[in-house]
Amino acid sequence: MHTQLAMIEDPIQSLFGVLERSVSSLQSIIKALRSERECVVFFDVQGLMGALESKNQALAEHQELQSQLQHHVKSCWQESGPRRMDTPESVSEALRLLGESVSGQSGRRLVEYSSELVALIDVVRELHDLNKELVQRSVSWITSYVAELVDTSSAGTYDVTGRIGRQRNSAQLVKRLI
């Protein structure tokens, strides 16, 4: 029994290392997404380029960690997972079930990591969707503003409150730009 527990602990300890790095990479993605949002809101193009670079690096790291994580989860599942089941497709579900089948502190930590990964992924999705919406609004605003500059007699503009209005007089447009 003691030798079997020692054999199980080594792959699980390796899994914990990959899980810690996965959580860290998701936190880096969240940080980059928040930075991206700020840059879009304030039209900071140079900052946006840096934020996108950071996000792309964090995403690449996370993808690499995901394949390592899947490998480690399958390895641990073969060692100590429920014998009646195949490895679940969802890593978080596999971690939860694996945590329930491993006793002690390691089992509790696996369940905690499962919950933490799900929560972080939800934050990433929420921020990604928000950023996508902000970019679409910004592009729409810029397109409308450029159209106004090109043809001030028929293009819509945004006032201070963000509502679209009509600008008929180019002299008023020049005053707004000054």
TrEMBL record:
Pfam families: FlgN. InterPro entries: FlgN-like, FlgN-like_sf. One of its GO terms (biological process) is bacterial-type flagellum assembly. Keywords: Bacterial flagellum biogenesis, Cell projection, Cilium, Flagellum. The keyword Transmembrane helix does not apply. Transmembrane segments: none annotated. This is Flagellar protein FlgN.
